[in-house]
Specification:
By secondary structure, the chain is mainly β. Helix content is 2%, strand content 24%. It has a domain of 164 residues: SH3 type barrels (Roll). The strands form five sheets. Strands 9-16-10-13-14-15-17 form a seven-stranded antiparallel β-sheet, with no helix packed on it. A four-stranded antiparallel β-sheet has the order 7-6-5-8, with no helix packed on it. Strands 1-2 form a two-stranded antiparallel sheet.
């Protein structure tokens, strides 16, 4: 996948770029696997803003992704790759030998017509899901389970991949994309390969309107606000922060570690991310 630079016929298109999606299939989303994604614009049931900088996006259909890969030892054929507006990675539509269709994340290099499988006896090929204990050390993986059987929760973003670094007693050691080395149950499932669409991080959106269509509202600097709204606000004229950088709620914004020292998953972390 490559980036395509837009022809600068307007000022806003001068530096913008888009992804080349010529490799995606033109098939329509499977009716039983999509639903309209409700738009909450960052607000809770009372209408109050609980997540800033959200709102106003276009209508979207939510693809139901098979995070569990629980149809074991049954081969499936990749029918095609599709664009998913709800995530940075593309999705692949697969069809099992019994006729059932499902969506999975498309790893880098997966093509229409390829075969994928999940299970302990699955071969070590792209897109296959296996338990960590069946995957050799040094293999790139994604779609990693934290709790066996719950479904993939980690390493799901475009271009991301984790690496199995070894095994220690009854646990597997995995190096995550952040650089953190963490313990996992050897029975937890992961998918072989790197998540596709790795060029997504290099997109230049070009204008604010593209972000608004994605549901992302503007971010205002703290120093441009009043003292009631932000700790950095106030002052005569253009003034700096005048203090250690803080979040709008007064917490340290940079440098200070805010992770709970008694968090239950601390024992699973061997090496913190840089």
């Amino acid at each position: 996948m490559a980036l395509k630079l837009r022809k600068p016929i307007t000022s806003s298109l001068r530096f913008s770029s888009i992804l080349d999606r010529s490799h995606l299939s033109s098939i329509r989303p499977v009716k039983g696997l999509v639903s309209i994604l409700p738009k909450r614009s960052g607000r809770n049931s009372g209408g109050r803003v609980t997540a800033r900088h959200q709102g106003g996006r276009q209508k979207r259909y939510l693809r139901e992704i098979d995070w569990r890969r629980d149809k074991r030892e049954m081969a499936a054929t990749v029918l095609g790759l599709e664009y998913d507006p709800n995530r940075t990675a593309d999705v692949a539509l697969i069809q099992y030998s019994d006729g059932q269709r499902r969506y999975i994340l498309a790893p880098e290099g997966l093509k229409s017509g390829d075969k994928v499988m999940a299970g302990e006896m699955a071969p070590l090929t792209l897109g296959n899901a296996l338990p960590l204990q069946a995957i050799p050390v040094g293999t790139l993986i994604h779609n990693l389970e934290i709790i066996p059987g719950k479904g993939a929760q980690m390493v799901r973003g475009a271009g991301s991949a984790a690496t199995i670094t070894g095994f220690e007693e009854s646990e597997a050691l995995v190096k995550l994309p952040s650089g953190e080395i963490r313990r996992f149950k050897p029975t937890a499932y992961a998918t072989i390969g790197q998540v596709g669409n790795s060029e997504w991080k290099n997109i230049n959106f070009g204008k604010a309107g593209r972000k608004r269509l994605m549901g992302i509202r503007p971010t205002v600097r703290g120093t441009a606000q009043n003292p009631h709204s932000h700790p950095h606000g106030g002052g005569e004229g253009r003034s700096g922060e005048g203090m250690n950088p803080k979040t709008p709620w007064g917490k340290p914004a940079r440098g200070k570690r805010t992770r709970n020292k008694s968090k239950h998953s601390n024992r699973l972390i061997i090496q913190r991310r840089k």
